[in-house]
Every structure is written in C-alpha cells, then in structure tokens.
Amino acid sequence: MSNAELLKVTTMATAIAEGRTPEYLFWVGCAGSFDDRAKKVTKALVKILNFAGIDFAVLGTEESCSGDPAKRAGNEFLYQMMAMQNIATLNAYGVKKIVTACPHCFNTLKNEYPALGGEYELVHHTQLLQSLLDSGKITIEGGEFKGKRITFHDPCYLGRGNDIYEAPREVIKKLDVELVEMKRSKANGFCCGAGGAQMFKEAEPGNQEVNVNRAEEALGQNPAVIAVGCPFCNTMMTDGVKHFEKEAEVKVLDVAEMIAQANDL
Amino acid sequence: MHLVSIIAFVLIFAAAVSLFVINIRKILRNINLGKDQVINDNTPARWRQMVLVALGQSKMLARPIPAFFHVIIYVGFILINIEVIEILVDGFTGSHRTFMDVLNFDGFPLYNIAIAFFEVLCVLVLIACFVFLYRRYISKVPRLASKDLDGWPRKDATYILLAEIVLMTALLVMNSADHALQSTGFNFPISTPLYNALFQDISEGSLHTIVLVAWWLHLVGILAYLNYLPFSKHFHIVLAFPNVWYAKLTPKGQFTNMESVTNEVKAMLDPSFTPPPLAEGEVMKFGAKDVNDLSWKNLLDAYSCTECGRCTSECPANQTGKLLSPRRIMMATRDRMEDVGKSLDAKGPGLADGKTLLYDYISAEELWACTSCNACVQACPVNIDPLNIIVELRRSMVMEDSKMPDALAGAMTNIENNGAPWQFSPADRLNWATEN
What we know:
heterodimer; A: Rossmann fold; 2 domains; 8 strands; 43% helix; globular; B: mainly alpha; Fumarate Reductase Cytochrome B subunit; Fumarate Reductase Iron-sulfur Protein, Chain B, domain 2; 21 helices; elongated
C-alpha cells in the first residue's frame, strides 16, 4: 500500500452518499483532530485500519466535542448540548460501532450517551488492535521495539473507569518487548493529572505536578518507551519526561504508533 | 442478691438499647435529609458485591498487613460475641455459664473447646489492637498520622482500640478467675496458665468477686461500646454492609445523567418540546450546595467512612500537595450532617443556619483539584464514592453560581462556540487528514 492509500479517510457523509454503510465510525475527538501530537496517533491508527482492510469512516467537520470536559467540570448543560447534537448526527447515519483512541470520548459515548438516546458499541483502539492482531489481520514481524523495555501507563478512563487493563498490554506484548509494570498500575494506576477537565486549567497549588510524579515513577522503570493509550496522558507524560530532561532517551508513544512503526507503516 | 443483679442487668440493658435506638434514629433522620434515589436494580449483583466486599473484605487485600490484622479483629468481634449471647442469658436469668452443662457432652466438651477457641481469638485481637496503636503512634503510617485526623477523629480511633483492649482483657480475666470453668479439668490455652500464674493462691470468695467485676465490666463495656458507635467512625462495622449493597454497579467512569438538565436542553434545541412542570413547591436546583441536595446514598457513604485514608493516600491531587483529600470530603459531609442534626435536635434552624456544605465545609480549591481519576473510589474498602459528591458540588458551583477557574471557563466557551475545548475552527476539524 502506498502512503496515500494508507492515509485514505472518507467521511460518513461521503460514504452514505456512495451508498455504503461503513462498519466502524472512527471517532477522532478534539485532541486527535487538533493537537499536533495526537494527530500523529490519529494518522497511525488510520494507517493500521486501512492496512487491515477495515471499513471505516469519520464524521469530519460534523464531529464535535463529546462533552466530557464539560461534564467532569460540572457543566451538565453544555455537556448535554454537545451530546444531543452528536447523538443526532450519529443516529442520522445509523452508526452502530465506534472506535476511538480517546478514553474520555470512549467513556462518555459508551456510558453516558445511552441516557440521552445514543446507543453504540464502543471499542477503544487498543481493543480493536488486539482483535486485529488476534485474528491475524495485522501481524508483527520483529519490529524496532523487539526486546526493549516498555512500561504502560493506564489511562484512568480506560482502566479504572471501564475496567480495561489487558487489551493495551496484550497488544504491547505482541511487539516482543519486555513489558515492565510500574508499582502503581492497572486498578492502582496513578493519574497523569489531566482528567476531570484538569487538561484545560492550571493545577491547584501544591508541591508537585501530578504528571511529574507519574513520569518519575515511569522513568524509574528505565523504559525505552512509555506507552500510553490516551491523548491527554500522551501530552502529560511527554511533558513529564521533558521535566527530567530524558526526552532523548525515553519516548512517549501511543500503542497505535508502536504498532504502526513496528509494521513500517 | 440474684434478684438485685437481674434487675440491675435488665435496667442497664434496656437503657443501653433504648439509647442506641434513639441515636440510630437520629442518624437515619440525618441520612434522610438527602434526596430520594431508588436503588433496587440487579439485586443478585448487589448481594454478590456485599458478600465479596463487605463480608469478604476483598478490597482490604490491596494492603496485606493491615488486612491481616483487621480480619483478626473482624472475625474476633463476630465470634467472641457469640459468648455475649451467654452473658445476656446469664444476666436475664441470674445463672452462671448457662451453656456449660448443656454443651459439654461426655467425651466431647464442646463448650470448653469453644471457650478455648475464643480465648485464642481474644489474644489475637489484643495483639492486633497493639499493632494498630503502633501503626498510629509509633511507626506513624502517613495516612493515619495525617492532619485530616487532628482533634476528635484521632481520639476516636484511639478510644476504640483502647476499649477493645479493655473488653478482651476483661474476658480473659473473667475466664481465668472463673472457678466453674477452671474446675472442669479442661486445659484452657490462655485462662488456665493465667489462673496458675495469678489466681492460684487467692480464696474462692475473692475469685468470685473478680469474676463478677470482670463480667460486669465486659457487659457494661459492650453496651457502652454499642452506644459509642453512633458517635464514632467505628459505625462502619454496621453500615459497611448496606453501603456496599447500595454502591454503584455501573462503570466507575460513568457519571449520573441529570434529568432536569435534559428537559431544559431539549426545550432549548427543540422549541416544540415543553419540559414537564415542576411539582408544587419544588425549586429547580442544579447540583448540590448542601447535604439535602446530595442523595441519601452520598450521606450513607459519609456515615460509613471509617477514616482509614486509603482514598487520600491514592489521590493524585493529595499526593502532590494539593488541598483535596477525598477522606476529608467524606468527613466534612458527615460533620455538616451532624451539625444540622444537632441544630434540629435543639429546635434550631437546621439547614437554614446560613452555612452550606459547599464553601463553608468544602472549599472550591479542594473541588477543583480533583482529576476524577476514581483512585479514591477504587481504594475504598467499603465502596464509598467521594467523586460523586465532588461532582455534585462542582455542578452547583458551575451551574448555580457560575464559578469556575478562568482557563476552564475559556475552554467551556470554546466547546460551546467551536465544538472543541481549544480555539480551532470546526471547519478545520478534518485538516489532519490532508496535512503532512
């Protein structure tokens, strides 16, 4: 596949106009659409989806914020306004299955949209990657991460929020790496500091930034890569690694980026 | 003499039980200050959750050392209290060790075996109590030495441990000095050596007095303990069970949907939609400003909290020096209920005392430090949900008082205008697909 073929994206509007109903809607999210770092994850995932021959589309300009930060901040009005608009769009296209690389969007759409009339089957991208690897739709041979030490930072809204701990780990293990766990992992994982709308405000007064605390713990594992599964965790851990001036030695990568890179996509 | 003692017993027992009932009713009244919330879905899962988490203490296992000693006290408390049944029967009938003859079968002294087992448990409980005092005052486990507990809460914890030490000691002394027990010829693991060491040379009359004093001490101790519970964090021994039964079963990431807002938003988006009218006297209020805006389950959570501080020790905000402590959220909620309750008891203004849970008991700074990561909810051994209270209070701040940090207000404006928390045009949302 050429790079252009790998990066091919159709919108739901186009697909429907062509008489197709894609199997998956890829919910890109605000970070995945606008944040430079997260856009790379979006593209990595698009490449994997195309490589695996998954029939998917995006909403494009018809997508809006899921409302997660508004809801966590206590602004239920704004949350429900966003949610109802998004639900109207999704239902108009008859969307059934949604994949997203953002655990915040994942949680909101999966758990909170049903009360407002939006019922969809939600899949986090690490879950989809796991099933693609298990079914052999994508395979990994060698790859640049082979034998390297990797630690995975659990996103709160994927882990504790929705009890998904194994999918990202199973995907990482397929890379033939040495997966090392931080002391605070899985159900006891430590937040990156961005959840609950903290991403969009200054931290309250304290003696340390949450992401610095977490990055210190991750760096203590001497990993080559700190793997993440959330655009906000990605930002926070990247900043945390920079705080310790370790960005040359330790990369912060989304699980999708690792799979794409291992496949030279 | 017997009659006097029976009458004294009956009076003390009746007074203690009545007082307990009075105080429990006050707590129930305080919990009922909260809003109605029907929780009766999926009862099999609720029973399972209660058996696993409350009865089986599964979440304690995350920290094995306190779990080990806690389970000793827990099992000890339940099993040793079987002996209290006999104490009650003896007290009402004026008999002594009613069950001894009944349960000591020829060749199989069941009663003696049971007492021997309780004695071993007693010693284990004593050890556990001293370990817990050691953790609080000598090794100073951070969550137990925290300033959250300054004042009454620390005293409360200490009184409970001391009371347990007194009760267990009284029981062992009673058994040791008890001629009836020691003359069975059975070798009791604790009381027989204790008898040999302490009471061998003492006259039977004095021994009888010692037994009597220890018996009354244990009995009055238990009844005092019972009546201390409603004023103490130790009430968790009762409320842990209903609290876990009623605890949330949905994914932790799922926040409640606000029905009242749904109606407003529907009316906003669709002019033909008319929201259902409010019931008479009902005031439209969003989120929680005070305890009566929280649900009764939030308030039950507060009374179930035993202030162990696992939540706070896992809280990313607290661990990085922020003001927020989920334990303090629960303690403040309980303090507010207690203050309102006391005011109501004194025919005072109750909720209308010019104070509110939000701002007067819990500050905006604490609430804004929360990352909603659910670490506190995960950590709680009795499934208390501090996050739900935090969110309800945030809702009130934001939707009633329009108060939020400036940067966050900016993000909200962006979401409203651009459909994203950052200032990007919605028209550019798909640009990533064509950028290099």
